[in-house]
Sequence to fold (157 residues):
Amino acid sequence: MAKVESFTLDHTKVKAPYVRLITQEKGTRGDVISNYDLRLVQPNENAIPTAGLHTIEHLLAGLLRDRLDGVIDCSPFGCRTGFHLITWGEHSTTEVAVALKGALEEIAEQIEWKDVQGTDIYSCGNYRDHSLFSAKEWSKKILDEGISDEPFERNVI
Ligand SMILES: [Zn+2]
Fold:
């Protein structure tokens, strides 16, 4: 089976919350796609409950696009400690961390339930499993700890 970079990362050595560049891949026409690890909570110590994580997912889909060019997708890790962010082109981890921080601040301070996209039976695959309360409380916790633009050292932006 193909070896996957994410599974070679020593998850005991990282210091969340952080942004890490996982890979950059170049297409046959020279386009670059970047894949980032947005690690919101410490692996094997914490995990965001599914309802809060699900609502954060729906919100980051819009809020990161407001702040960063070329966003293709932002999807939660199965371990519930963070998200993959896939973008066209190259962004520094500092730039991504600033965008993530701004998005989480908006979730914590401004977002109301009516602002959350895709929360009905037609637009979501599990619309009953959302919690804006949880999304806000976890966003506050992540912001209190600060987001680092490096995974192994705390370099909070
Ligand atoms: Zn959904």
About this structure: The longest helix spans residues 50-67. Residues 54, 58, 118, 124-126 surround zinc ion (CB under 6 Å). The domain at 13-145 is CATH 3.30.1360.80 (Gyrase A; domain 2). The chain is about 30% helix and 20% strand.
